[in-house]
Design a protein that fits this description.
The protein is mainly alpha-helical. Helices cover 44% and strands 3% of the residues. The strands form 2 sheets. A two-stranded antiparallel ribbon has the order 1-2. 34% of the residues are buried.
Length: 341
């Protein structure tokens, strides 16, 4: 697009808020990852490459590939991250949210998906009905994932259905040899029950203060010979402001985690050195170029963002494009938060 055309577009946006044409790429050829939505490249883990896969697919739909058909060799890309049957910059933002959470979490890299569980359920139900499953995913596997979500579990955390009941991915029997493997100074001080609870909370980005508090209380109860069971842990977490039904679903069909085995008292542990704060941004910059801008602004308008905020952010985005210094997605997001969106 010529400089003059961009200038005219920028000038028109100073006067009114236009109803932008939706430029989101329909995801007929872009799959959704049932197990781990933010894993757009189907590698099994969430990395900065997943955000790039999404934004590259958007750019391909506007430059040299206007039909939006996936280029050869990218059939397995699962770029419909938020399961809305389209591919937009918001899919990349969901990935970036998880990347930033991973950077500050100690949950062995496991992070609960930011995609709404009910939306995931609706999407999978429709995909099963229409037989539009991702490559290499069987109907049986899809139904297993669906049932896990229906019972409040999270497939991305390793939750699974066993004999019709939900089991957590962190739910290892303390009496078995299949215990979580974590670094520890003294193996006798390791309590699998405490570990399972703390890992579950970390995966949902619960504050370290709450995790440390409940871990201490579980340990002290165990030392006193009156170990806490899961119902007591859930009740205490609820008092601390944790959404336990979301994080630790409990239904009649869900077995409780086995309480810890009573062990010898644990001596006071030395204070832990404070970990350095992780960098705020770990994902690659996603530049808001013209096609990305049009898609993003259309989505903001559809989401009901006020005309005042939409006018301001539209002007700032196009001014940056006109000056050949496009904003990156995170700066736009922070600006929207500043404006109250």
């Amino acid at each position: 697009m010529s400089k003059s055309r961009l200038s005219r577009k920028s000038f028109s946006r100073k006067m009114i808020v236009e109803s932008l044409e939706s430029r989101a790429m329909m995801a007929a050829d872009a799959f959704h990852n049932f197990t781990l939505p933010e894993d757009a490249d189907a590698s099994g883990v969430v990395t900065p490459l997943d955000a790039l896969v999404v934004i590259n697919r958007i750019n391909q739909s506007f430059a040299g590939n206007p039909s939006g058909i996936a280029p050869a060799g990218s059939e397995s890309a699962m770029v419909d991250v938020d399961a809305d049957q389209s591919v937009t910059p918001l899919d990349a933002l969901v990935v970036i949210d998880v990347l930033n959470s991973q950077n500050s979490s100690g949950a062995n890299g496991l992070i609960a998906s930011r995609v709404d569980s009910q939306r995931r359920i609706d999407f999978i139900e429709k995909a099963i009905a229409l037989n539009t499953l991702p490559p290499d995913l069987s109907i049986q596997d899809a139904n297993t994932i669906l049932e896990t979500l229906r019972q409040g579990g999270r497939p991305e955390l390793g939750d699974r259905i066993e004999n019709g009941s939900l089991r957590w991915g962190q739910d290892n029997d303390p009496r078995s040899d299949d215990r979580p493997s974590v670094p520890q100074n003294d193996p006798e001080e390791f309590n699998p029950f405490t570990y399972a609870v703390s890992q579950r909370l970390q995966a949902f980005n619960v504050s370290s203060e709450i995790i440390e508090k409940i871990s201490v209380e579980i340990r002290e109860a165990n030392q006193s010979g009156q170990p806490m069971d899961m119902s007591q842990v859930r009740s205490r977490l609820s008092q601390l402001g944790v959404d336990v039904q979301k994080i630790m679903p409990a239904t009649p069909s869900v077995p409780e985690l086995d309480p810890p085995i009573c062990v010898l008292p644990v001596p006071d542990q030395p204070s832990r050195p404070e970990r350095p704060e992780p960098p705020a941004i770990i994902a690659p910059a996603v530049m808001v170029t013209e096609p990305v801008a049009e898609s993003l602004l259309a989505r903001l308008a559809d989401a009901g963002v006020s005309e005042e905020i939409l006018t301001i952010i539209t002007q700032e985005i196009w001014d940056a494009i006109n000056a050949d210094r496009p904003l990156d997605m995170l700066k736009v997001r922070m600006r929207l938060i500043e404006l109250g969106a």
